[in-house]
Amino acid sequence: MKSYTLLLAGLILAGCDGGGGSANDLGGDPDIPLTTVGNEYSAFVTIGGVNSGANFQTVKIIQSDAGVVTVKLVVDLTNVNPLYKAFIPADRLDANGNVNTELKFKATSEGLQDYFYGGGDLSKPFTIVKHDWGVGESWTFTTSDGQTVTRAVTQKTGVDDWPLGFLLIKATEVTETDSAVPGVQKVLFRTNHRFGLVYVEYQLVGGTIVKISLIPPATL
After folding, report:
1. How far apart are CA 54 and CA 211, in angstroms?
2. DSSP assignment, residue 147?
3. How does pLDDT run across 186-212, given as a tens digit for each residue?
4. Among candidate residues 161, 151, 153, the one with its CA nearest the CA of residue 137
5. How many C-beta atoms surround the C-beta of residue 109 within 10 A?
């Protein structure tokens, strides 16, 4: 089951064939503060409204190339329920059974992309958001087995109403439906043109909700 891998990929935020045409082409300036090597993030995860017990020791950008960044992710899982630990692929874990891996995403002045549905293949991106899109904009990605995953802008108030630490910021909500990840029904992203991905919510089959809050470096 790959649902926990998706949780990790959602932090910054299945082999597939790309889809959605130009919506999954991302231009813009890659030289932005968000992609600076050395940036470190804080993360907090709840599962069913309860602290997951995951201790995010390192969420740090270690490489940046034309907007494509590599994030080093180290998470102490000592206090995580074994039920959830069992879903984490072995190749993401170190000898002590903790997450120790690298993830890639793309961020430019135009928007954000991930490579999860493309299995990390940089030629198969799926756009998370383009910052100038409005409510109703939608785009797709088609998996190698023919499943179409849709993302759409579902809320954009244009006012500073989303909490980020001690701040209130403007946030765009993007909803992913028909998820290709077993056990996941729907995914919600919250993004900001300056701070990038600040929140991910996974609605799992059975009703459990996983919430990930991301706090970007204070230098942004």
Report:
1. 12
2. P
3. 999 999 999 999 999 999 888 989 999
4. 153
5. 14
Q: What is the pLDDT of residues 84-111, one digit of tens each?
A: 777 677 888 899 999 999 999 999 999 9
- The C-alpha torsion from 26 through 64 and 94 to 128, rounded to 10°, is -20
User: Which of 211, 187, 181 is CA-nearest to residue 43?
Assistant: 211
Residue pair 110/127 in contact by the 8 Å Cβ criterion: no
pLDDT given for residue 218 in this prediction: 59
pLDDT at residue 127 in the model: 96
pTM above 0.90, yes or no: no
In the chain, the largest separation of any two C-alpha atoms, in whole Å, equals 46
In the numeric block, the tokens 């958001």 are attached to 129
Query: Residue 26 has which token pair?
Result: 């991302």
CB 198 within 8 A of CB 188: no
Backbone angles phi, psi at 8, to 5 degrees: -65, -45
Which pair of structure tokens corresponds to residue 141?
């990605």
Q: What's the one-letter identity of residue 67?
A: G
- Say which residue the tokens 């990390």 belong to: 120
Residue pLDDT, tens place only, 26-79: 999 999 999 999 999 999 999 899 998 999 999 999 999 999 999 999 999 999
Phi/psi of residue 110, each to 5°?
Answer: -85, -35
Beta 42-47 vs 50-51: how paired, if at all?
antiparallel
139 Ramachandran zone, left/alpha/beta (phi>0; psi -120 to 50): beta
